[in-house]
Task: structure prediction
Amino acid sequence: MLNKRFITFEGGEGSGKSTQIRLFKKKLSKIGNVILTREPGGTKESELIRKILVKGKETKFSDEVEILLLYAARKDHLNKVIIPNLKKKNYVLCDRYIDSTFAYQAKGKRSNLKLIRLLNKSITGNFLPSLTFYLDIDPSKGIRRSKRSSNKELRFENMPLSYHRQIRQNFLKLSKKHKRIVKIDASLSKKEIGDTIWKVFNKTKI
Result:
């Protein structure tokens, strides 16, 4: 299975996933070659799309345009980074992937879901990770954390709290639907979260 060593980290704003993915990489590097990447982004061209997506006014794109931009970036990322490294039997750790698209861009609209599913099939061939860690946190706490950081990519953080609560519900639904998604309590200490992630990984025998 080509996706066997493909592992993703998901979560709302301020969940600590970016910190945990770096800590996980450090541990994983002791047993194999590890590539750390992110979405949107991961390639020179996809990073340009990222800048367009994560900065500026919250309402600058229609839902359809935002989804199409994400999949343009994802296709380039898969072709140039994810697939080639998996073929080399490297571990690929990705900060956000398809589950974020369903959680953030679907917005409970049937038309959005239909478009995402269509693109997921036609553009990515339904290529999924073998394991996903979802770091769950109360949105109000997560947003406070995120805004205290030096992060300047605030387009999504500036959305209403109700939007972030819906995102959390979307992630929780996804975690119940897919066995590959492991929900982690992001209110725990950094060490407790890291230890839990490593324990789960060792059980999967990837």
Remarks:
- The mean pLDDT is 93.
